[in-house]
Amino acid sequence: MPQTIAVIDFGSQYTQIIARRIRECQVYSKLYHHTVTAEELKKDGVVGIILSGGPSSVFSKKAPIPDKALFTLGVPVLGICYGIQLMGHLLGGQVAKSDHREYGHGTLTIRKAGRLFSKLPKKLRVWNSHGDRLIKLPPGFTAIGTTDNSEYAVIEDAQRGFYGIQFHPEVFHSERGVDVIRNFLVGVCKAEQDWTTADFIKKSVADIRTTVGKSRVLLGLSGGVDSSVAAALIHKAIGKQLTCVFVDNGLLRKGEREVVESLYARNFKIDVRVVDASALFLRRLKGITDPEQKRKIIGRTFVEVFEKSLKSIGGADYLAQGTLYPDVIESVAIGNNPAALIKSHHNVGGLPERMKLKLLEPLRELFKDEVRAVGSACGLPKEVVWRQPFPGPGLGVRVVGEITKERLEILRNADFILQEEMMDNGWYWKVWQSFAVFIPVKSVGVVGDERNYSYVIGLRIVESIDAMTADWTRLPYDLLQKISSRITNEVRGVSRVVLDISSKPPATIEWE
């Protein structure tokens, strides 16, 4: 394994971004719950520790407090926001409530660059989000950076390699934030930048062969990036021992089944079995409106369909899935993670006890852009590797409210027009995701001289790097007008098209 930087989670919604920024520096990161023991970290061989931010105050009775012994492991520690307050609180300093909450942009003045701010400007525009601040330094620390609200905005104990920063270097809004993180990783922790795509593939192929042996593997192929790359990686490792099952769940995009059959079975020579379970899925989803309930029904039904598929392929020992690191972070609380669960992912959380299949998730450690890099290195074409993400539950979470055949057909046709125009105008490859959403609200329109009382279609088009954060895309007005005009004129049952201009956070990319 490459050298590991431990990111200890205290409930910040930015924690996963810290982990991602570390990966950008070609250093492997791993998230841990705040209750992780120093012994566990030592056993994992971590070469550095980052304490995340979080919504709590160190004065709260329920404040998440780490194992103080982590400061005796002899590895560098960086505390961010709540993390610097924890360091001060646990190591003999003093924390106090600020006169006012420091939120948003601020100016950081560097008094002494040291290793953390090596080769960086003396003044940086940074992003703050805190209500407490350090007012007395712990023994051995000195202040090397200030903001208007804090004379101890950056502190260091260079001898022990302990650093604390009050701002958030991981977010896009902090100028040169990634450089600060890189300086900690390379300059302080002396971590080797050995987290590379080639090494990951080599290790994964070896691990898959060792794990699987001569057993058979069943993979649920959706045609999306994640399952496609998982299939390519596993096929590279075990070849004909892999069988892919493509489930037509009735929640697919227009023409998707035909595309998958053609692409994988004919071009990649992978054993692909198509199962039409659309009637089963739609029957079980009838009358269901709650998004979480939809996701769970779809997830359980997927598992059942795979289970039945075992007979047709002569049995298997493993079920492979394209689970990614963000799926795990968003879906499963790490222990008693203080951060609230955001949403369930259909392929996260394990299998029913009745199933004898073991899980194989070769991409579980990766973020989306890392998955794309692996796919390209495995020889997958651009049309697969750079295909926009599509949720596991399919159109089931893009039809807001109850799912019906009529609503699915309206959404399919509207989404097909959107994708066609995005492709034709070159925008499809420039954005992270573009899709239509069926909104169960009727709106008055006019067709010819007649009143048209029909449904609303929402357009969701966003830019992102890793889906952890996203912003809405500023498409040219002429293109938006053409998309809207085509949908309202060509899709029966639609009277109005609206544009979603929400960022993530606070919204998520998908509507459900």
Describe this structure as you would to a colleague:
This protein is α/β, with parallel strands linked by helices and 512 residues long. The protein folds into 3 domains: 4-188, Rossmann fold (3-Layer(aba) Sandwich), CATH 3.40.50; 197-385, 3-Layer(aba) Sandwich (Rossmann fold); 404-499, 2-Layer Sandwich (GMP Synthetase, Chain A, domain 3). Helix content is 32%, strand content 25%. The protein is built from 14 helices and 18 strands. The chain has helices spanning 15-24, 38-43, 82-90, 177-188, 197-212, 225-238, 256-267, 278-285, 291-313, 325-331, 368-377, 382-385, 405-424, 477-490; strands spanning 4-9, 28-33, 46-51, 77-80, 94-110, 123-136, 142-147, 150-157, 162-165, 217-220, 242-248, 272-276, 318-320, 358-360, 433-447, 450-463, 471-472, 494-499. The protein has a 9-stranded mixed β-sheet, with helices on both faces. The model is unreliable at 331-349 (pLDDT under 50).
Keyphrases for this structure?
3 domains, alpha/beta, five-stranded parallel β-sheet, GMP Synthetase, Chain A, domain 3, Rossmann fold, about 25% strand, 14 helices, 18 strands, nine-stranded mixed β-sheet, about 500 residues
Concise summary:
This protein has 512 residues and is of the alpha/beta class.
Number of strands: 18
Task: Return residue spans where pLDDT drops below 50 for at least 5 consecutive residues.
Answer: 331-349
CATH hierarchy class name of the largest domain: Alpha Beta
Distance between the termini: 37 Å
CATH topology of the largest domain: Rossmann fold
Cα-based radius of gyration, to the nearest Å: 25 Å
Find the CATH superfamily of the largest domain: HUPs
Helicity range: 25-40%
Spatial strand order of the main sheet: 2-1-3-4-9-8-7-5-6
The rough form would be described as globular
Overall number of structural domains: 3
What is the second-level CATH architecture of the largest domain? 3-Layer(aba) Sandwich
Q: Give the integer mean of the pLDDT values.
A: 87
Instruction: Give me the number of helical elements.
Output: 14
> What class, by secondary structure content?
alpha/beta
What percent of residues are in strands? 25-35%
* Biggest sheet layout: 9 strands, mixed
